[in-house]
Amino acid sequence: MQNNSLNTTGMKRVFIIALVLLSQISYGQQDTQFSNYMYNTLSFNPAYAGARGTSSFFLSQRSQWAGFEGAPRTNVLSFHSPLGSSKLGIGLTYLNDAIGATNENTVSLDMSYTINTSDTYKLAFGIRASGHMLNVNFRKLNIFDPGDVLALNNINNRFSPNIGVGLFWYSDKSYIGFSIPNLLETRHIKKNSTASVSSVSKERLHYHLTAGYVVELNKDFLLKPALLTKLVAGSPLQVDVSANVQMYEKFTLGASYRLDAAVSFLGGFQLNRSWFLGYAYDVDTTTLSTFNSGSHEVFLRYEVFRSDKVKRPRFF
Predict the structure, then answer these.
(1) How far apart are CA 47 and CA 91, in angstroms?
(2) Burial of 129 (0-12, 13-18, 19+ CB in 10 A)
(3) Backbone angles phi and psi of 75, in degrees to 5
(4) Verdict on whether the full-model pTM lies above 0.90
(5) Cα distances (Å, whole numbers) of residue 139 to 16, 69, 72, 152, 158
(6) Rounded CA gap, 228 and 257, in Å?
(7) In 31, 113, 209, 254, which residue has its Cα 20 to 30 A from 151's Cα atom?
(8) C-alpha torsion sign, points 202, 283, 65, 94
(9) Which of 217, 238, 174 is nearest to 35 (CA)?
(10) Nearest-CA neighbor of 241 among 255, 223, 221?
(11) pLDDT by residue (tens digit) across 214-271?
């Protein structure tokens, strides 16, 4: 009985891994998921470049579904800054995303232009140019048909360019943004003369809508509810709702709920004026929770303050 139970569990693991990989191959790269999205806006909206009013460096590592073989792992390194006293901002992002047999690397260059819409609000327009490198090592998969033309040759650094756009309307206390990070629906594997397959890996348009508002509870406590929605063809609408409390400009605690997917617990610490360290732990609310011990995400942000013009780091 024990062996049968172990075999059943093993079969479930194989089945779920197969579903994950099938989703990856069928729909191509889906935009990376972050629990600390409120600190990592540049990853999906080029209009955010320079919005913090200073040079900002961001480093993040996400390990999803800990203990699950072939689970997604994501690394991000980014920089953005306003260009002097002009209305322009620039951003540069490197993203590495690995899941199962696939490994993807993307480099994005962002440019924003900001106008004043009132005494307190600004509107930024953003554009993105990116290059995407796809690698697939079919040897990591169980090949049931040795003659399968899709598994005869690995994919090595297959390059595809893309462009994206975004809007970001904000003040010192609130913001709303909309973006489409990738406008081109690239087909990574096209029709083979010896097979009937026309495409097994295709980019899909992702529509991002984000919003947040900072409520000053008193001089030492700030509350920031935030929202992120992602819409992509062929997938259900993803909604993330979060709330963070900043205490004494040092500590941040919060929680987030991803509709029909996960609950996240968020924490952060302002080490000093320039350095901020954050962490998120996700607990799945689906049957996947049986096969993993949660997801971990940690980030480090460094900002350059050359004058006292910026009195304190903004809460978003």
Answers:
(1) 9
(2) middle
(3) -125, 135
(4) no
(5) 19, 15, 18, 9, 17
(6) 10
(7) 31
(8) positive
(9) 238
(10) 255
(11) 999 999 999 999 999 999 877 888 999 999 999 999 999 999 999 989 999 999 999 9
Q: Which long-range contacts (CB under 8 A, 24 or more apart) does 8-12 make?
A: 12/290, 12/291
Both tokens assigned to 277: 């360290």
The residue behind tokens 């900072």 is: 214
Q: Which of 31, 85, 54, 48 is nearest to 238 (CA)?
A: 31
- pLDDT over threshold 50, residue 17: no
Residue 5 burial (CB count, 10 A) = 9
Q: Please, where are the H alpha helices in the chain?
A: 2-27
Q: How far apart are CA 249 and CA 273, in angstroms?
A: 10
* Rounded CA separation 262/292 (Å): 12
Q: Copy the structure tokens of residue 19.
A: 């579903």
Identify which of 39, 79, 40 has the alpha carbon closest to the alpha carbon of residue 304. 79
Taking phi over 0 as left and psi of -120 to 50 as alpha, with beta for the rest, 15 belongs to alpha
- Average pLDDT of the chain? 84
Tokens of 228: 């992120």
The CA distance from 209 to 237, in Å, is 11
Q: Cα separation of 58 and 270, whole Å?
A: 14
Band the pLDDT of 210: cuts 50, 70, 90: very high
303 and 285 Cβ atoms separated by less than 8 Å:
no
The residues near 243 (Cβ < 8 Å, ≥ 6 apart) are: 223, 224, 225, 226, 254, 255, 256
Cα separation of 298 and 312, whole Å? Answer: 22
Amino acid at 132: H
The predicted structure's pLDDT at residue 109: 98
